[in-house]
Each structure stands twice: as structure tokens, then as C-alpha cells.
Specification:
The complex is a heterotrimer of chains A (about 270), B (about 375) and C (about 70).
Chain A (H helix, E strand, L loop, with lengths): L3 H5 L15 H15 L6 E5 L14 E4 L5 H11 L4 E7 H7 L1 H10 L3 E7 L34 H8 L3 E6 L3 H13 L4 E6 L3 H5 L7 H11 E3 H4 L11 E8 L5 H12 L6
Chain B lengths: L2 E6 H12 L3 E4 L6 H10 L6 E4 L3 H13 L4 E5 L1 H17 L3 E9 L5 E5 L4 H6 L8 E3 L4 H18 L2 E7 H5 L1 E6 L43 E3 L13 H16 L2 H4 L2 E4 L6 E4 L2 H16 L4 E6 L1 E3 L3 H8 L3 E6 L4 H10 L4 E4 L8 H15 L1
Helix pairs in contact in B: 1-2, 1-6, 3-4, 10-13
Chain C lengths: L7 E5 L9 H5 L5 E3 L5 E3 L9 H5 L5 E5 L5
Antiparallel strand pairs in C: 1-4, 2-3
The chains are: A alpha/beta (about 270), B alpha/beta (about 375), C alpha+beta (about 70).
């Protein structure tokens, strides 16, 4: 008994349903390593997800787990956190789940700065339904619903979360698995809404259709495209073309929703009740 | 001490919820239900409870379910357009067996309709609004005082049977002011969900026999478990094995159907000697009662069957009462419950229908009664 | 130099491994090679026990285990 899998996975549910080389397992592993590093009590943790490949993760994780409806993970998670602020609430969501159908819930969770850590598994595609473009699919990419190339522009999810009021925003990749773990640790420690965009790869529906190759090639692409935010400071716009930043992108302490609501209870005179 | 007060229906709804132990409310503003959210925002923190105004109706329903999973008694309130949006997560609460109360103060539809006008057009949506085979408990009060009682009851049924319960008001009952007698605090029956007593290792979240409901722990109380809207086995994990799927879907229905004596409520007025039977619910039942009195004064023997539990419908009671009687169903829709009544009594019924945004006038019902009494003569 | 580094060995869970090749491709010492099914076999002599294979494994199928000195 030495691996994190033995400690935190529902072993009888393994192996998982994800395709060979899928990055979802790498991110999920990083989440477990972050939790383990913080030595949080298992039963204090509630892991919430929506619908999609990545949202299947909670089923394998031996915590209080809540696999909700498509896009709604943050709404349910808000109820869990507000219902019992003592609980540590983690949301695992995908690019379609979070940025398309769940986009409204995302911006409002950011705005409230409620103490939830959302980890977005961004594989640039709807994997569960076999390869349609999402709001985070790069322009020009091929998808089953963009057979002539995607004409939509992609969100910068981290910019969006920052603008909407999240207090901690970071990005990492499955290639940078240790860095990803560190970003998640910081997010979990932040008292407020944290968003960590985990750039990952879908070899089955994105890599193959866009002729990038398999999981190894896709990880190498992350290695090339991801620029640590400190290094980017000394790079030109030209040099940053086709790249994205990784690291801590925004960190600004602001009042947290449940803490503010405690003040409401005090003001209303309900402080001595449950 | 019981207390007599002048109250609005929506206010009585909040009072009933608080009497039941409501300590969480998530909502979104919508006419004619908004007073419920406003009063919840005011009263809940006074008792240490929690209110949140969510970004939309879908989110409100999600937050209510999330809070209930932490052990809160949670409610949301809406009207037609919002009720449509909540359907997705009402289905989630049904399959995951999460207790919660959804109030729908009905207004004229479809779509945005007439926000301030009464209707009863959501009766079938309360039964079949969310997709898939699922049971429904839906209660419909006719007065302000009954709104207090049925909101309390909605919570009790939700907790007891681990299910979403829908409280179907209409704009008339929701906005009407009446004198109500509120029972003294602590004198009403309050039911709380059963929690597991076994060891966490032995706990299986959906392990219950037909007709039964499994104990439900709060998140964070030492029983970590998995909740999913995917069809699940007794452990709570996704399954597509036909025998397991069949069992869970049938058990979902059986836990309601095998307890009808506890769940069904209805009122019978002057039915014993009646030749004509009115079947009416919600605000329309008030008009029906008035029409009944007018008809009786004119010597026409009219009775009233008034379901308080609309879903499941009190089928056996209606069948018994309706025997040999001519049945008239007045509704503020084009005949939603009328069809159900026809199905139950296996005979044609006549409807009195109003869809112009105005309340159903007793005179209109009386007219139908008189036409019916001519026919039966 | 630590003269007594903790002893670790690489374990592969055959049943969970989906043979994606990530651990093999990114091992900095080429201490892993593919068997006939594409799953990794471990060369203990060149391995520096860095743990990168474990961190990037999508399947929780490869990990370092501390070896009990007595066992």
C-alpha cells in the first residue's frame, strides 16, 4: 500500500473508462497529489462534476462525490459550499461543460468569489460525444461539427475568470504534471474562487482528426506551446505567437461569499442558531 | 400559542417552510412567486439559515440539491418559465433521491404569458415535466392557511420519501390575503430524513427494498458516497445492467405508490346525495365551492371532490365518489385534469375552462351545473 | 551525496495499464521499454527513481514503491 491510487481511488471501479493516453487521468492524479500534500481529511472533501469525459472522474475518487447534470457542477457546488461552509469543495469540469453550457454558472461563481476550486480539464473538444468543437477549441481546428475548420474564436478561460472576479487563476498542462499539482495546491489553499485551467489532450478525437499524432506527440506540443508566465515577460509578441502562458495568472484576495454571509447572519440576529 | 394573522399566500408558504425546518433557499426572481424569495432572504438568516439568489432558475435548483446533500432542508420557488428551466434538475433530484421542495406559483402561459395573471396550466408539467419515468408528489392548496399546511407537508413528504415535492400554487392563492391561524411553534409534526446507523463501510446509499427508502447521510458526516444522475446500482455507481436498472426505476415509483394512504389527501363536500360532482383544485376549488352553494340553493344536488394531493391523483377515492354522478371539471386551463379524471372514472366528463388570464367565476361553473342538471333530468 | 537513498522500485499494474507509451517516451534515462503488448518493463540499473513516469501516467498504472529493507 504505497501509491496514491491505493489511498484515494475506489479501486473496484478501476481501470477507468478513458482512452489510452487520455490526459484526464494525469490531471486527476495531480488533484489527488495536491490533496495528499495538504493532508486534508477525506470526509471534509466534496468533489463535484458535470457531464463529459472529465466529469466521470469523481466516480473513481473515494470522497463525497457528486456527478451532476451537464454544465451545472458549479451551481450544485455552490449549494454544497453554502449549505456547509466547513466542507472543502472541488469541481472537476471540462471545456464544454464549464465554458459552454456552464458558462453562466462559471462567471457567477467567480463573481461571488465563493470558496470553490474548479479544475477545468481543457482538451479542446467534446470527447464523450466523440469530437465536436467547444468554446475552447482553437480557431481553424477540425471537429466533427467543424468539418471545414472551426470558425469560432476560443475563449481565454483564465482571462474570463479573472475579469469575472475569481481571486486565484492559474494554468498548467498535463506535460507539466508537477507544476499542475502545485497550481492546484495554491488553488485549494486560496480562500475564494479558484480556477485552474489544465491544458490536456484528447488523442482520440482531437489529436487524430487534427493530425497532431498520439498522446506522446500531444504532450510534446504542450511542452512547446506552454510558456511560464515569468519567462513570457521578456518575450516579444512575435515570440509568443501560438503559445499560451502557464503559471499563476491572477491572485488577488477578496472577501469570500460564505464569510460575507456569516456577517449577514450576524446582522440579522441569527448568530446563535445553526 | 396559536396566532391569528392576515397573510398573503406566498408569505404563508414561507411560514410553512420555516415551521418545517427550512434552513436553505436558493431562488431567482420571477412574478408571481418573488415574495417567497424576498421573505426567505429576510427570515432565514434571522434563524441561522441560508439564502442565495442564483444566476438563473437552473442554478437555483442545482444549489437546492447541493445544499440538501449537506443536510439542509432546502426549497426554491418559481413560476412557469422558471419551472420549465428547473425540470432538468428536478429529474436529477428524483433519480438521486434528494429531498427538496419546489414551489410553482402558476401564471398564464405558455412561454412568458401573462406574468401577473392566474392559470393552472402547469398541472401536467408537474407530473411529466422532467424527462424519463419518474414519480411525482404534487400538492395544491386552495387557501392561504392551506398553503401554510401543505408547504409544511411538502417538506415532510420530501424528507420521508427522499424525493422532490412540488407545491403547485397559482397566482390567486399566492397573492391573496386571508386570515390564517398559525400553530404555535413546536406544535406541528416535523419529519426529518432517516440517517444511517450502520458503519460507513457497510453503508450502501441506494440499498432499499421495493417501496422503501434508504437512509441518507449528510456529506461530511463520515459516510463518503457517490451521487450521480446516471442510472445507478444500490451502491450508487453507474450501471446499465437491465435487472439493476429495472429495479431502481420501479423502486423509485414503488416508494410513492406503496404509501398512497400516507401521501394522498382530498376533501369531499356534499358528495353523499349529489347528482353532479365537481372536481376542482387550487383557486378554482374556491369558485367551485361557491357555485356548489348557489346550485344547492336552487335545489340542484352538487358535490365537490377537491384533491389536495394532485400527483399521485387520489384515484380510488374519486372512483368511489364519482359513481353514478355526472362529473364537471372546472380548471384554469383547457382540460388537463379533466382528461385524468376521464381516465380514472372511465366516463366522459365536461370541463369548464378559462384561459383568458381571469379567475374562473363561480357563475360560469353554476351555468355548467345548470346545463348538466337539465341533461340529467 | 546521500549514501543511503531510500530504496524504491517501479511497479506496473498490468490490469490498469492501457499501453499509451507516455511513461516510456518521457523517461529521462530510458529506463522503461515496451514489452510486446506496449506496456513498460523497467530497467532498474539506469532508473534514477525520479517518478516522472508515475506523475504522467494517465492510468494510475505505474508507481514507485518504497522497498522495505527487511523485506
Amino acid at each position: 500500500m504505497s501509491s496514491l491510487a491505493d489511498k484515494y481511488l475506489r479501486g473496484h471501479k478501476m481501470p477507468h473508462i478513458w482512452c489510452p493516453g487520455c490526459g484526464n487521468g494525469i490531471i486527476t492524479h495531480a488533484v489527488l497529489r495536491a490533496i495528499d500534500q495538504l493532508q486534508w481529511e477525506r470526509d471534509d472533501i466534496v468533489i463535484v462534476s458535470g457531464i463529459g469525459c472529465s466529469s466521470r472522474a469523481p466516480g473513481y475518487l473515494d470522497f463525497n462525490t457528486l456527478h451532476t447534470t451537464h454544465g451545472r457542477a458549479l451551481a450544485f457546488a455552490t449549494g454544497v459550499k453554502h449549505g456547509n461552509p466547513r466542507l472543502k469543495v472541488i469541481v472537476l469540469t471540462g471545456d464544454g461543460d464549464c465554458a459552454a453550457i456552464g458558462g453562466n454558472h462559471l462567471i457567477h461563481a467567480c463573481r461571488r468569489n465563493i470558496d470553490i476550486t474548479a479544475i477545468v480539464y481543457n482538451n479542446s473538444i467534446y470527447g464523450m460525444t466523440s469530437g465536436q468543437f467547444s468554446p475552447l477549441t482553437p480557431t481553424g481546428s477540425l471537429a466533427t461539427t467543424a468539418p471545414y475548420g472551426n470558425i469560432d474564436r476560443a475563449f481565454d478561460l483564465c482571462d474570463l475568470a479573472t475579469a469575472a472576479g475569481a481571486s486565484f487563476v492559474a494554468r498548467s498542462t498535463t506535460y507539466h504534471a508537477n507544476h499542475l499539482r502545485d497550481m492546484i495546491v495554491h488553488g485549494l489553499q486560496n480562500e475564494g474562487f479558484s480556477l485552474i485551467e489544465a491544458m490536456t489532450h484528447c488523442p482520440t478525437y482531437f489529436g487524430r482528426r487534427n493530425r497532431i499524432g498520439g498522446p506522446v506527440e500531444m504532450l510534446k506540443m504542450q511542452q512547446e506551446q506552454a510558456i511560464p508566465v515569468q519567462r513570457a515577460a521578456s518575450m516579444t509578441q512575435e515570440q509568443l505567437e501560438g503559445k499560451y502562458l502557464i503559471g499563476e495568472l491572477h491572485n488577488q484576495q477578496m472577501p469570500e461569499f460564505c464569510a460575507l454571509y456569516e456577517q449577514v447572519i450576524q446582522k440579522a440576529g441569527g448568530g446563535n442558531q445553526r | 400559542m396559536a396566532e391569528k394573522r392576515l397573510m398573503q399566500g406566498n408569505e404563508a408558504c414561507v411560514a410553512g417552510a420555516l415551521a418545517a425546518g427550512m434552513d436553505f433557499f436558493a431562488g431567482y426572481p420571477i412574478t408571481p412567486s418573488t415574495e417567497i424569495a424576498e421573505l426567505a432572504a429576510e427570515y432565514l438568516p434571522q434563524r441561522g439559515g441560508r439564502f442565495i439568489q442564483m444566476e438563473d432558475e437552473i442554478a437555483s435548483m442545482g444549489a437546492v440539491i447541493g445544499a440538501s446533500l449537506t443536510g439542509r432542508k432546502a426549497m426554491t420557488a418559481t413560476s412557469g418559465p422558471g419551472f420549465s428551466l428547473k425540470q432538468e434538475n428536478i429529474g436529477y433530484a428524483a433519480i438521486t433521491e434528494v429531498p427538496c421542495v419546489i414551489v410553482n406559483v402558476q401564471r398564464a402561459g405558455p412561454s412568458t404569458g401573462i406574468p401577473t395573471a392566474p392559470a393552472q396550466g402547469d398541472v401536467m408539467q408537474a407530473r411529466w415535466g422532467t424527462h424519463g419515468d419518474h414519480p411525482s408528489i404534487t400538492l395544491s392548496p386552495s387557501s392561504v392557511e392551506e398553503t401554510f399546511g401543505l408547504t409544511l407537508r411538502a417538506f415532510n413528504l420530501a424528507e420521508k420519501y427522499r424525493t422532490p415535492v412540488i407545491l403547485l400554487l397559482d397566482e390567486i392563492v399566492g397573492h391573496m390575503r386571508e386570515a390564517v391561524i398559525l400553530p404555535a411553534e413546536g406544535t406541528v409534526e416535523v419529519i426529518d430524513r432517516v440517517k444511517p446507523v450502520c458503519s460507513p463501510a457497510e453503508y450502501r446509499p441506494y440499498d432499499a427494498a421495493m417501496g422503501e427508502t434508504a437512509p441518507m447521510p449528510d456529506f461530511g458526516s463520515g459516510y463518503p458516497y457517490h451521487v450521480t444522475g446516471l442510472t445507478h446500482d444500490r451502491e450508487g455507481f453507474t450501471t446499465s445492467k437491465p435487472a439493476e436498472v429495472d429495479f431502481i426505476i420501479r423502486r423509485l415509483h414503488s416508494k410513492i405508490e406503496m404509501h398512497l394512504a400516507d401521501i394522498l389527501q382530498w376533501e369531499e363536500i356534499a358528495t353523499e346525495d349529489a347528482d353532479i360532482l365537481l372536481v376542482a383544485y387550487g383557486a378554482t376549488a374556491r369558485s367551485a365551492k361557491a357555485a356548489l352553494k348557489m346550485a344547492r340553493k336552487q335545489g340542484v344536488k352538487v358535490g365537490l371532490f377537491r384533491p389536495l394531493t394532485i400527483w399521485p391523483f387520489p384515484e380510488a377515492a374519486l372512483t368511489q365518489v364519482a359513481k353514478g354522478k355526472q362529473v364537471i371539471v372546472p380548471e384554469m386551463n383547457l382540460g388537463q385534469i379533466a382528461l385524468e379524471v376521464e381516465r380514472i372514472i372511465k366516463a366522459e366528463v365536461s370541463g369548464v375552462n378559462q384561459v383568458d388570464g381571469e379567475p374562473l367565476n363561480p357563475a360560469k361553473i353554476l351555468q355548467a351545473i345548470m346545463v348538466g342538471s337539465e341533461v340529467s333530468r | 551525496m546521500d549514501n543511503n537513498p531510500p530504496l524504491k522500485r517501479v511497479i506496473v499494474r498490468e490490469q490498469w495499464c492501457k499501453a499509451c507509451g507516455i511513461c516510456i517516451a518521457f523517461c529521462p534515462r530510458q529506463a522503461l521499454s515496451a514489452d510486446t503488448s506496449g506496456k513498460p518493463t523497467w530497467n532498474t540499473d539506469v532508473c534514477v527513481r525520479c517518478g516522472l513516469c508515475e506523475q504522467r501516467c494517465p492510468d494510475f498504472a505505474i508507481y514507485l514503491e518504497e522497498v522495505n529493507a527487511l523485506g
